[in-house]
Design goal:
Helices cover 22% and strands 33% of the residues. The chain is of the alpha+beta class. The protein has a 6-stranded mixed β-sheet with strand order 2-5-4-3-1-6. β3 and β4 form a beta hairpin. The two termini are 24 Å apart.
C-alpha cells in the first residue's frame, strides 16, 4: 500500500462533499506528473490525505482511499465540461482520474503553516517552496506522523 496527499479547493469539492457522496471520481487534474501518478502508481486501497487548498487555513482535513485505479478522465472529451481538452480523445486519452472513497474527517484542520515547522515533514514536497502539484506521495513516516497529530472525531 502507498500513501498520497491530494489537494482540492473546498469551494469546488471538499471533504464534506466526499463524506456526503461516499465515492467520487477525482477529475480535472491537468498536470502530467500528477496524471502519471494516478495512471501508473495509485492502486485500489492506497490511503490518501485530503488537503484543502486556496482557503483561509490550508491544510489536511481528513483521509480517503483510492477506490478505483486510474482510468481515462472522460470530462476531457466533453466540450461542455469545464475540464474539456480538445487534444484528448477516447482513443488516445491524455488525462486520467481515480475514484476516491471517504474514510474520515478530522475534527480540526492540520494547517500547512504548522506542517512547515515540523522537522518530520522537511522532506515532503508539500512544504517545499514552489511546489504546485495537486497530488503528492507521502512516506510511511510522514503518514504516521500526520495521523498521530490529527484530532480524530
Amino acid at each position: 500500500m502507498a500513501y498520497w496527499l491530494m489537494k482540492s479547493e473546498p469551494d469546488v469539492f471538499g471533504i464534506d462533499d466526499l463524506e456526503r457522496v461516499g465515492v467520487e471520481p477525482w477529475e480535472g487534474v491537468r498536470n502530467y506528473q500528477a496524471r502519471n501518478m494516478m495512471r501508473d502508481e495509485m492502486r485500489a486501497g492506497d490511503r490518501v490525505l485530503f488537503y484543502h487548498s486556496n482557503t483561509e487555513v490550508p491544510g489536511i482535513v481528513g483521509v480517503m482511499r483510492v477506490h478505483r485505479e486510474g482510468y481515462p478522465d472522460e470530462a476531457a472529451f466533453d466540450p461542455e465540461h469545464r475540464y474539456y481538452d480538445p487534444k484528448s480523445d477516447p482513443d488516445h486519452p491524455r488525462w486520467y482520474r481515480v475514484d476516491v472513497a471517504f474514510e474520515e474527517k478530522f475534527a480540526e484542520v492540520i494547517p500547512l503553516a504548522w506542517l512547515k515547522e515540523q522537522p518530520e515533514m522537511a522532506d515532503s514536497p508539500l512544504v517545499r517552496k514552489g511546489n504546485r502539484l495537486s497530488i503528492l506521495p507521502v512516506t510511511d513516516a510522514q503518514w504516521d506522523f500526520i495521523l498521530a497529530h490529527a484530532e480524530r472525531k
